[in-house]
Amino acid sequence: MKQWDLADLQYAPEGQFLDRKRASIAPQRVAQYLSAFANTLGGTLVLGVEDDGTITGFKFPGSVSQATYLAVPATYLREQPEYQVERIPCVNFRGESDELLVFQVAPYPEGLVTLLEGSGYLRVNDETRKLTLTLLGELKQRWEKRESEREKRDVEMREES
């Protein structure tokens, strides 16, 4: 697993590959970020850090449990992207021992990662954007066509051998 520099997790600019959220974000919103990173070039979601770099961690009032966040991919995502999660020990802004959760999401090469209710997301610079139904349908058709063509080539190659 990657060795994380706490200062980078706190202060690196948010953008295409990095976003930080307080540990009270709704689990479904976490699923949206995971979908967006998987549907683009991958990325890192840090839970327990404010946008300004303040570590609020998981001892902050109103925080969601780490177990709930760890269950997000299986609970909310239709497709399962490749990802890793790490708990990073830290000291929160109150001086208490705490942890951050860091989701490192790889690009999903097999199509689109959607939520169980059917929506999909893309990461565009420092924003997570919901795909429109029209665009989502077009992208799914392209992936299905590409997969069909790939399967056809594989059959032709086996027949030639």
Automatic annotation (TrEMBL):
<dbReference type="InterPro" id="IPR038461">
    <property type="entry name" value="Schlafen_AlbA_2_dom_sf"/>
</dbReference>
<protein>
    <recommendedName>
        <fullName>Schlafen AlbA-2 domain-containing protein</fullName>
    </recommendedName>
</protein>
<dbReference type="Pfam" id="PF04326">
    <property type="entry name" value="SLFN_AlbA_2"/>
</dbReference>
<feature type="domain" description="Schlafen AlbA-2">
    <location>
        <begin position="14"/>
        <end position="131"/>
    </location>
</feature>
<dbReference type="InterPro" id="IPR007421">
    <property type="entry name" value="Schlafen_AlbA_2_dom"/>
</dbReference>
